[in-house]
Specification:
DNA-binding; homodimer; 2 strands; 65% helix; two-stranded antiparallel ribbon; 8 helices; mainly alpha; 175 residues
Chain lengths: 175, 175
DNA sequence: TTACTCATGTAACAAGTTACATGATTTA
DNA sequence: TAAATCATGTAACTTGTTACATGAGTAA
């Protein structure tokens, strides 16, 4: 019940999202969802997920109900407060509009400084690597819930924008 | 001279990039560059930059030369090893092709689950917020070096792709 | 000489990672 | 019952943050 005013971290928001749209999950199921998702950058490590869920439960955002079985599993659901806080997190325009940390963008400026035979080779290797990534994402698009599908579609859009940018840079060089 | 084989972190790569393309900078100048850049997500905090530079110097990737002035400032440049390792980092296709962690993408799936008057309001608020961000980025585009300009252009492309995605979702709703 | 800024650094904290420990349940 | 897997949790580490300490130059 403490730290009520602190805004949620990205991982905490993602955990609440997962419980909300999947409904009454166990901690293990939340963890697995992160591990499987190719559009989330967390590994779904136990050392991150379990403490975060414990904190959210202690803060009164998650209701944790023990099951009858002997196992330590508990069924998790959102409290009213949890729903409210999740909603705030989802709709926070400052966070949602931030550009995030993009390994491609971080390196992009330096590619122009590369010596010319290397530069083309590097950009072409990257180009085909990104096409592979897109294929991988497309393959995942089948048989997925709506939430994850939106994420993957956006990941594909990002990769396509990167391809167009690379095409421009490769065309510039062949002038 | 230790940990030679460990691959560079994103921050370490960004620091080497900064020193390389700016040439012989002080730690303070590197720090300021991070603080000013809108396309990098680090705050350029002293507690991150100084230890990272110390580590890179100890590993033999950065050469640190004391200045004559009484101040503690040192001029930093890359060693041959530093150039090589920076080049590897820049051209690493696995890292460069990864989608990164995107606050917009993380939330996008949940917007579809919002109740309808709220959903349109939220998406519209986000739309105009992103347009503001683009204006801010465009204003920065003037009088910038090539490296930072590429980054900002990519940030603008990302925001424009987000706008198109939002337009689609808003149009869908008004069917 | 007092106050302000420049420049470097450190301490305490936050939030993630891997790797391991532990115990329950299922399957061979 | 032995082995594999399910499920939760914890310890040690990494890498970032903010806030503070420290000391050198500069302007009033």
């Amino acid at each position: 019940m403490k730290n009520r005013q602190d805004s949620l971290t990205e991982l905490e928001g993602a955990i609440l999202s997962e419980i909300h749209h999947r409904g009454r999950s166990t901690a293990f199921q939340v963890r697995k969802a992160f591990q499987v998702s190719p559009s989330l950058e967390w590994s779904g490590s136990a050392g991150a997920v379990y403490p975060a869920i414990a904190k959210l439960t202690a803060s009164g955002l998650i209701l944790s109900e023990k099951t009858d079985s002997g196992r330590k599993t508990s069924l998790l659901s959102l409290t009213a407060e949890g729903e409210t806080r999740l909603n705030d997190w989802i709709c926070d325009p400052a966070r949602a509009a931030s550009v995030g940390l993009d390994p491609f963008r971080l390196r992009a400026g330096m590619w122009g400084a590369l010596a010319e035979p290397m530069r083309r080779t590097a950009l072409k290797a990257l180009h085909s690597r990104i096409r592979e990534e897109i294929d991988g994402l497309r393959a995942r698009l089948v048989d997925l819930d709506a939430v994850e599908r939106e994420r993957i579609e956006l990941a594909i859009l990002l990769q396509q924008a990167r391809l167009r940018w690379l095409d421009l840079r490769l065309a510039d060089a062949s002038r």
